Amino acid sequence: MNQERLMQVLLAPQISEKATYVADKNEQVIFRVASDATKPEIKAAVELLFKVQVETVQVANVKGKVKRFKGSVGRRKGWKKAFVSLKPGQEINFVEGGTV
C-alpha cells in the first residue's frame, strides 16, 4: 500500500469515557479515520505509525447530528471510527506519544 495514503487514513484517536472503558475491557483502541478507509488500510496505518501488531479491526459509520438554528435545519458531517484490537502484550500510550 502507498505510504502517503496510510499517513492520511488515521485522523485522530477518539478519547472519551466510552473509549477508555473499551480500551480497558477489550484491549482495543478507537480512532477517527477517513470515511473512505478500508480495514486493511487501517491495520497497516496503525502498524506503521505506532509500531504495534494489530489483531483485528472493526469499523462503524457515525451519522452526523441534525442541528437547528433560527428555524433553519442543518446537518453535521458523518464520520467513521475504527475499533482496533491489538495483539496480547501490545499497547499504545497517547500520553507519552508512542508505544510502551
UniProtKB/TrEMBL annotation:
Per the UniProt entry, what are the Gene Ontology biological process annotations, in alphabetical order? translation
UniProt keyword terms in alphabetical order: Ribonucleoprotein, Ribosomal protein, RNA-binding, rRNA-binding
Tell me the first and last residues of the signal peptide: none
Q: Cellular component GO terms, alphabetically?
A: ribonucleoprotein complex; ribosome
Chain coiled-coil ranges: none
Q: Name one GO molecular function term.
A: rRNA binding
Its function, per the record, reads: One of the early assembly proteins it binds 23S rRNA. One of the proteins that surrounds the polypeptide exit tunnel on the outside of the ribosome. Forms the main docking site for trigger factor binding to the ribosome.
Tell me how this protein assembles: Part of the 50S ribosomal subunit. Contacts protein L29, and trigger factor when it is bound to the ribosome.
Q: Which family does it belong to?
A: Belongs to the universal ribosomal protein uL23 family.
Q: What is this protein called?
A: Large ribosomal subunit protein uL23
Record organism: Candidatus Dechloromonas phosphorivorans
Q: Which gene encodes it?
A: rplW
